[in-house]
Amino acid sequence: MISENFARCLAKICGDGNMNSKYIRYSNTSEILLNEFKDDIRKEFGDVHFTVGKVNSGTSFIQIQKKEIIAAFSSNLASFKSNEIFIPESVKNSPLNVKVAFARAFYDDEGCAALRFNEPTREWKRNITLCSNSLRILEGIKELLASLGISSNRIYRNRANSSYDISFILGITGRRNLLLFQEKIGFKHPAKAAILDLIIKSYGATPKRNPFLYEELKKKKMNLAFPFD
Prior knowledge:
With 229 residues, the protein is α+β, with helices and mostly antiparallel strands. The chain has helices at 4-14, 31-45, 67-74, 89-92, 96-110, 135-147, 175-184, 190-201, 211-224, and strands at residues 17-19, 24-28, 51-54, 60-64, 111-118, 123-132, 156-157, 168-172.
C-alpha cells in the first residue's frame, strides 16, 4: 500500500514531470504545486536534496538525482512516457483517499476548468477536461470518477485526423457532476480552483435571471485570464 504523498508524486511525474535512470524532474508554473511536490517527497523519503532551476521558457523545475527514489517510482510504473502512462496497480489497490490524491494531482497538471458565455444562446458553457497522450490513464480516471458517483463523457481524440497530435480528452459536464468533482477531487492549482468556483456560481447567473451576479462573474473571469480557458 502506498501513501497519499507517494500517489501525488507519481501523478505529478506522469503529468508535468519526467523521469529517467539519472533523475526525476517536475516542472510547473505554480509555486504551490512545486512546493507540494517537495513536501511530499520529504515526507516520504526524508531529507532530500533538490536541484531547482528554470527551463528556457521560464518555467520552474525541481530535480532529484537520488537512485533510491528513482527506483521507488520506477517499481510502480516502468515507463513515464506520455503515451505509456496509466494508473498503476499500487494506486488501484490502495484506499479511496490515495486514489483521489493521485487523481487530484493529475488534474492539477493536465486538467482544465473552462467557463465561457455563449452570446447567441445567452447561456454559460461549463466543463472540466483532462488531456493526455495515454488513452489508458484516461480510462482509469474515468473508472475512478464513476466510483465517486461522477459521470464523465466519452473519451475522444483531440484531433482525430492529426498525425502529430495523439492526445485524448476526457470531459465532465453537468451541474451535479461538476459539484461532485469540486467536493471530492477539486484543484489545488489556484487559478483552476478559482475557475471551478466561478463555474459552480454561474448556475442561475444569466443576464436575465440574475444580471448583477452575471456581471460580477464576467468581471472575475476576465481578471483571472489564464491560458488554458
